[in-house]
Design a protein that fits this description.
Elements (H helix, E strand, L loop, with lengths): L2 H7 L5 H15 L5 H4 L5 H27 L5 H29 L1 H8 L2 H9 L8 H24 L7 H28 L5 H25 L7 H32 L2 H7 L1 H15 L5 H39 L1
Helix pairs in contact: 2-11, 2-13, 4-5, 4-10, 4-11, 5-6, 5-9, 5-10, 6-8, 6-9, 6-13, 7-8, 7-9, 7-12, 8-14, 10-11
Length: 330
């Protein structure tokens, strides 16, 4: 193993703290699955535009006192990365997720998004010095078993509608968009040296807000329903709430976690979003989970637990290698 490999594998990783931040991000992000249900009469385009207009406005206010010094640290490649991440991880992802929730329901959407750990872990395992797929196989199998349980329950449910397949397609597309975001954002954060995590989050909010401004005319043109004033007020409150809770605080926790955990383990943390989304869905629908859904929760928890061990061993191995290299150099 060379020095570059050791660095990319993550010397300085703090797994317990990373898991804590990941759990917090999942708890906040799980709330976004409820928003499309709370304002069912509004289109996914409007939901995305409303959320990210609010996010952009808040970010622009927060970034004003920091802009004088921050602007000199932003490189052209950072702007390109922010544009891609905002488009795929925010605008497009939330449009597709909202469509999936409205057409297929929270449970079905959570199932597909629950595959994120698998897609991200497979991609992350190709990084230099990363934990190999063979060591992660038990965790991946448990993850797949959990998502199969949720999926079987969602598809076989008597409440399944004729729109389930449309919802399924939208959820798969959302899965692809967020897989790109999670992988790209994690790698961008590792390359940042002159921009803090907090500033990166604000810059992304600013970029997403600008994209939402361009999205707003289309969101209004394709709205064929006439909404009352009280419905618009409710929509505005929910958009602002989602922007603050998920986009500001949730993203901040996620970005902090991304610097503390390796990419292969970052994927596992997204399971907490699925976990909390399902809990919020059960509370919203005022029902207890089915046995298969309980089994899925158990599989999800053990999937994360079995993923921790190989990463701890890898971290110990890297630190031992670094220490011996330092002694030999000395």
């Amino acid at each position: 193993m060379n020095k570059e490999a050791g660095t990319q594998a993550g010397v300085g990783h703090n797994i317990p703290a990373g898991i804590l931040y990941g759990t917090g991000a999942g708890a906040l992000w799980g709330l976004i699955f409820l928003a499309p249900k709370l304002v069912q009469d509004f289109t996914p385009l409007q939901l995305s535009a409303g959320r990210y207009l609010a996010y952009g406005a808040i970010a622009s206010i927060m970034i004003i006192p920091r802009w004088k010094n921050l602007r000199f640290n932003i490189r052209k490649q950072d702007l390109y990365a922010l544009f891609r991440l905002s488009l795929f991880g925010n605008i497009l992802y939330y449009i597709l997720l909202s469509m999936a929730v409205q057409k297929g329901g929270i449970a079905l959407t959570s199932l597909i998004i629950g595959f994120l750990p698998v897609t991200i872990t497979v991609i992350g395992s190709r990084d230099k010095g990363a934990v190999g797929l063979s060591a992660l196989l038990p965790s991946l199998m448990l993850c797949i078993a959990g998502t199969i349980c949720i999926g079987w329950q969602a598809i076989a449910s008597p409440d399944a509608s004729t729109q389930s397949m449309e919802g399924l397609s939208c959820a798969i597309a959302a899965l692809a968009a967020w897989t790109f975001y999670a992988v790209e954002n994690s790698r961008c954060l590792l390359r940042l040296h002159t921009i803090s995590i907090h500033d990166w989050n604000l810059l992304m909010g600013l970029m997403t807000g600008l994209q939402a401004v361009l999205l707003t005319p289309a969101a209004l043109v394709y709205d064929h329903l006439q909404h009352r004033l009280d419905e618009w007020i409710k929509f505005g409150i929910i958009s602002l709430g989602v922007a603050i809770i998920a986009s500001i605080f949730g993203n901040a926790l996620w970005n902090r976690m991304s610097r503390l955990l390796p990419l292969t383990m970052t994927g596992q943390m997204i399971l907490f979003e699925t976990f909390f989304a399902l809990i919020y869905g059960f509370l919203w629908e005022q029902k207890w989970p089915y046995p298969l859904e309980v089994a899925a929760f158990v599989f999800i928890v053990f999937s994360v637990l079995t993923c921790i061990s190989p990463h701890q061993k890898q971290t110990v191995k890297i630190r031992s290698y670094t220490a011996s290299s330092a002694e030999n150099t000395g």
